[in-house]
Amino acid sequence: MVPQRCQWCSTDPIYQAYHDSEWGVPEYDAQRLFEKLLLDGFQAGLSWITILKKRDRYREVYRDFDPQFMANQTDNDLLDLLEDTGIIRNRLKVKGARQNAQAWLRLSEQTDPGEWMWQFVGGQPLINHFTSISQVPVKTAEAEAMSKALKKAGFTFVGPTICYAFMQATGMVMDHTTDCFRYPVLSGAE
User: Fold this and answer.
1) Between 20 and 30 A from 53 (CA), which of 11, 16, 39, 137?
2) Domain for residue 16, yes or no?
3) Which CATH number fits the domain that encloses residue 80?
4) 176 known ligand binder
5) How far is CA 81 from CA 95, 101, 146, 176, in A?
6) What are 134-170's pLDDT values in tens digits?
7) Which pairs count as long-range contacts for 10-17, CB under 8 Å and 24+ apart, including other chains?
8) CB 44 within 8 Å of CB 100
């Protein structure tokens, strides 16, 4: 029997694997949070499945999203990336990734960036109990606060909608709907 998944999840095996094992699972590792923040920024204006299909290539070209490596990329390195068909070849997004890596390193000098990110939800996942995808917001006050703080810290491609998608992806917010097979485990109801 096919498990009941959230309505947004298609039949694509890559999407289903992401939904079943990653989306909504609390992530505390700063390196993985950095990766997911950048991937959500790359998604702007595109579908998430597009990013998932390019994620492995992003991991290659960014050396597993090493912020030091990314922050030190030259303008010529960025031009080379714009020729890589395995990633999203958007000039602003490629340049923004370097800018975000530099901002992440500055943030890391002041605090633990993982803990800093989790502060916007009080350090623990916010558990929602939506019965339908139509109830799930595209942004919240917490996402707006995160967006404002990230922009102040020098990040780009971090609007409130991107921040909310990031919060969902990293389990800061648990938005699996109540009919989804992942809901009981991730909501603590099981």
Assistant:
1) 137
2) no
3) 1.10.340.30
4) yes
5) 10, 15, 28, 35
6) 999 999 999 999 999 999 999 999 999 999 999 999 9
7) 10/49, 12/49, 14/49, 14/52, 14/53, 15/48, 15/49, 15/52
8) no
66 is a domain residue = yes
Residue 129, marked binder: no
Which of 12, 3, 1, 41 shows the shortest CA–CA distance to 169? 41
**Which has the closest alpha carbon to 173: 160, 182, 186, 162?**
186
Residue 36: inside a domain: yes
The three-state secondary structure class of 62 is: coil
6 is annotated as contributing to ligand binding = yes
Q: What Cα–Cα distance (Å) separates residue 145 from each residue in 45, 120, 135, 140?
A: 22, 7, 21, 9
β-partners of residue 173 are 126
* Number of domains making up the chain: 1
Q: What are phi and psi of 104, to 5 degrees?
A: -65, -40
Across the strands, what pairs with 126? 173
| Per-residue pLDDT tens digits for 7-53 | 999 999 999 999 999 999 999 999 999 999 999 999 999 999 999 99
